[in-house]
Amino acid sequence: MLIKTLLNKVERFKSFVYGTVCVTLVGGTEALVIDIVPRRNSGPICPECGKRRTVYDRQPQRLFEYVPVWSFKVYFRYAPRRVKCPEHGVKVEFLPWSYGKERMTISYQVFLSRWAKRLSWKETAVIFETSWDTVFRAVKFVVDYGLTHRSLEGVTEIGVDEISVFKGHKYLTLVYQINAGARRLIWSGPERKAKTLLRFFQEFGPERSAKLKFVCSDMWAAYLKVIARKAPQSLNILDRFHIMRKFNEAIDEIRRGEVKEFKANGQENVLERKRWLLLKRPENLSEKQTARMDELLKLNLASIKGYLLREDFQRFWEYQRSDFAGKFLDNWVTRTLQTDLEPMKKVARMLRKHKPLILNWFKAKGELSSGAVEGMNLKAKLTMRKAYGFRTLKCLQIALYHELGKLPEPEYLHRFC
Ligand SMILES: [Zn+2]
Asked: What is the Å distance from ligand 1's center to 96 Cα?
């Protein structure tokens, strides 16, 4: 029968063969059901030790959902045997197409998870006429498999980042590998406390931690302390992305203060819908935005002063030598402290305090890509946006590993999609 021939091409089991194929009602809908029978003379395998043992008894038939064809749902039907293992007692046999009590086959889980990478989980569920929860379980299975089977060898450069999740002030700490050609999310944990990052180092292990060359991070004191303690040989770098983010936070704070003042004085709000103009780099603005920005620059606003201070500081990153860069930084700090822009002064004081770690950037120059952490951060935010429907932090973490973890999948599978 043709279906069996096709199946043998995509999924062949050593100790089992395909039996009869029929169309029958499953849950009120017509579906393709394929029986599976053990090959003659092949005993069941103990799931604990992987050894062939004798049959103890047979359980009732079960359905295992497989990859659908022509909008028909497809199921394998099999009555699992129980093995009698002298070491492990009576157990349900190992089945090569499914794990544990799961009703989905491994192939179907990988199939769904691949689609869930391209579409949102919700869309995936709608297209394959299944539930959000099923898609979640499939992704979780593939992620768990990947986390267990991935290799963390060769991780010598990492970036520690945090993203705020779910409205309010909840954070997720993310650790990326940022080696050239091997960028991926390697760890995530709730909150951004010292103990959060300590947990990462604990799981990462002292041996691997000792091999770290560069650690890019924010100037968050909790992180700095832990990095100094757990990877003292590494160069801790306060990188461009994290520092420039502080500038943007300051500009945003100044802008909000000014808008409030306009309102209180009954003035026209000239900053309305100008937030992104102020936060973007001028070279990233469109022609139209540039024209609007030029208009804004003519006004004598605190937000503009902050903006100009930031743009001035960008020159810092172009220095080749760290001593010159250091002088520039001192000079910028002095000038900024003479202004009346409190949020910017806060940035200046922060820069002064962390000058050595910031100058570490120049020691790693040429070896480290300035965009690595920023690129990963952007992808993480995109995943979060795609992820409406993620009700818990755990779900979000799984989605992030799924999208950014570059995790290995079960290998022997046919590529359906
Ligand atoms: Zn056993």
From this structure: 16
